[in-house]
Amino acid sequence: MLNIVVCVKAVPDPKEACNIKIDPDTKTLLRCDVPLVLNALDKNAMEAALQLKTQFEAHISVLSMGPPEAGNIVKECLALGADQGFLLSDPAFGGADAFATAFTLAKGIEKIGSFDVVFCGMASSDGSTEWVGPEIATFLDLPVVTLVKEIVDCDGATWKVKASVENGYRLMQVELPAVFTVTREVNTPRTLSFSGIIKARKKEIEQWGINELGVTRETVGLKGSPTIVSELNAQEENKRQAEMISGTRDEKADVLVQKLVDAGVL
Amino acid sequence: MIDFTFTEEQEMFRKAAREFAETQVAPHIDEMEKTGEVSDAVVKALGEAEMMAITIPEEYGGLGLGYTERLIAVEEISRVSVATGMMLQVFALGIEPIVKFGSEALKKKYLPGLAKGEKLSTTAVTEATGGSDPTGIRSSYKKDGDNYILNGRKCFITNSHIADTITVLAKDEENPKAFCAFVLDKDLAGWKATHKEHKVGMRGCNTGELAFENCVVPAAQLLGEEGKGLRVTMAAIGDVGRGGMVGVALGLQAACLEESIKFANERILYGKPIAALQTIQNKLADFKIDLEAGRLLGYRAAAMQDKGQRSSNEFAVAKYYTTEACQRAAKMAVDIHGGYGCMEEYAVSRYLRDSYVVGPSAGTSDIMKVIIGRWVLS
């Protein structure tokens, strides 16, 4: 039996990005005004686990840290085919940076118990640090492969995966248990199905706070976060520009190519 | 106290239907618009996504969900493609009479295949002389031993050329007050789909005519009791048909509003987006009022239907309101888009054409008012 843990995050719906506000004091996102959705790259992580389940006997636990409303995205993962759901939710977890988030998730994974593989999305659409996966591995003292774009061989205790690098990939061999963060290239996530939603009725979500995890308030949330956001500035909106190029077809093509070269596109 | 909220599970069904529509249906819209033909890929995807199984009981391979969930699915799919929403809503018109009035043998024979989408269904009531008034139909049957002999023609039948099973209504040749509803297989000799219609909108949703000529229908294919077929088809059309059209209209209204908001925020006039103009805001507010009111009417009727209460009158109100509103919405959406609204590259031009096909489907607004008038006077 392959035991898989998939870490997922509830993020503000990117379609509502214009309505996202930031707490001026803590410099953290105010999530209450925007609906929360399953982080897009975590769907790829879920899909990777689900595809393994079609090949091997496997058990998928889905783990998230967030406010109680994040239970909806755990439920969504259960509807996609995960077997068990865990939500780490406690007011003390609020305002966590990547370090404190990874610490809390690692504690959650330890409490889940036996596991062979931990899948995470490469990054979240709100924080985009790409740190949580590697930091979970550090806390659990496990090997990690980041930016996995293809699982080449997963039959056995040693896996081969392709990990993206600029202009290519690294072929990595890793002993399980291990942590993998995946890119969107790794697969095409399935969509929710009506029958999956019905099956999820019988699946429970366990909720754990600081007491269940056996951690202190100082180690989690804002208090346990070494990263301090000192300042936030709004980026100026890009001003679109248009320029009409005149001349013959060949002349226009030459001018266009030169402009693309000058702009560093080519 | 009345609870107007959807359950968490219903919200998830909406999300599933929306994801399905945006990923599986949207990529085929251009092809459907161009050819006017049903997309095989869309039909296959609808089956794989269990969209035809929603109201079929679990013991026959369905999902055993309610009419509220069906309305959610039809609304979300119609938000992306009215043609596909219409096709799906009419599949249910073919399924409902079997679920409600079919013998155990007929249920076992048809429902599992229909639930999987391996077989497609429709219902055929309308003729040149009767549709909203089904007593005016001329298609007839005659008892002949263990069979019925069926003759006649049907028109404006959605899914006419793609359905594998069809529920058809006919009148007793000798008794104009007696009607029978039968379920027929595509390969049964004596009937065929004939003329294909070319509609102004809902392109990609098949509509056409059916002809029956001495079609020998085994008695085992009878739905409900002999002579009481009107009850069978009216149950399908009254609640399920009108309910489905409410979903189609709501989806179209939502699409009109979304496209209009998007355009109004992008189109610059007098140095600012036209959304800043009160005249545009007034239109957007009208959209929203109609959509909110339509949803309350439609989902209330669906909730009543789920409780087993009679809901055909409430659906008549909802059908009238939402289909009229979707026509207003489509016109306003085109108006907001100005010249762009006349271009086929912009979805609102499709919405306008679609909206005029939504109106008469499952009964015109005037017929809805006749029904509502009878209701208030009864």
Characterise this structure.
The complex is a heterodimer of chains A (266) and B (378). Chain A has 266 residues and is an alpha/beta fold. Chain A contains seven helices and 13 strands. Chain A has helices at 40-55, 71-80, 98-112, 132-140, 194-199, 210-213, 249-262; strands at 2-8, 10-12, 21-22, 29-30, 36-38, 58-65, 84-88, 117-121, 144-153, 158-165, 168-175, 178-182, 205-208. Chain A has a nine-stranded mixed β-sheet, with helices on both faces. A two-stranded antiparallel ribbon of chain A has the order 2-5. In chain A, strand 10 (158-165) and strand 11 form a beta hairpin. The longest helix of chain A is centred in the first third of the chain and has 16 residues, at 40-55. Chain A is globular and about 70 Å long. The mean pLDDT of chain A is 91. By secondary structure, chain B is of the alpha+beta class. Helix content of chain B is 53%, strand content 16%. Chain B is built from eleven helices and ten strands. Chain B has helices at 8-25, 29-35, 40-48, 67-80, 82-101, 104-116, 229-266, 278-306, 312-337, 347-358, 365-377; strands at residues 121-124, 140-144, 147-158, 165-172, 179-185, 191-196, 207-218, 222-223, 268-269, 272-273. In chain B, strands 1, 2, 3, 4, 5, 6, 7 and 8 form an eight-stranded mixed β-sheet that branches. In chain B, strands 9-10 form a two-stranded antiparallel sheet. In chain B, a hairpin with a 2-residue loop joins strand 2 (140-144) and strand 3. In chain B, helix 1 (8-25) runs parallel beside helix 4. The radius of gyration of chain B is 21 Å and the shape is globular. The A-B interface holds A 72, 75-76, 79, 191-198, 201 and B 8-9, 11-13, 15-16, 19-20, 23-24, 49-51, 53-54, 63, 65, 69, 73.
Key structural traits:
heterodimer, A: alpha/beta, B: 378 residues, 11 helices, 53% helix
Structural class of chain A: alpha/beta
Gross morphology of chain B: globular
- Report the major sheet of chain B: 8 strands, mixed
Mean pLDDT of chain B: 94
Structural class of chain B: alpha+beta
The amount of beta strand of chain B, in percent, is 15-25%
List the quaternary state of the chains. heterodimer
Q: Could you tell me the mean pLDDT of chain A?
A: 91
**How many E-type strands of chain B?**
10
Q: Name the biggest interface.
A: A-B, 13 and 20 residues
Number of helical regions of chain A: 7
Fraction in beta strands of chain A: 25-35%
Low-confidence stretches of chain B: none
Which segments of chain A are poorly predicted (pLDDT under 50) over 5 or more consecutive residues?
none
State the shape of chain A.
Answer: globular
* Number of H- or I-type helical stretches of chain B: 11
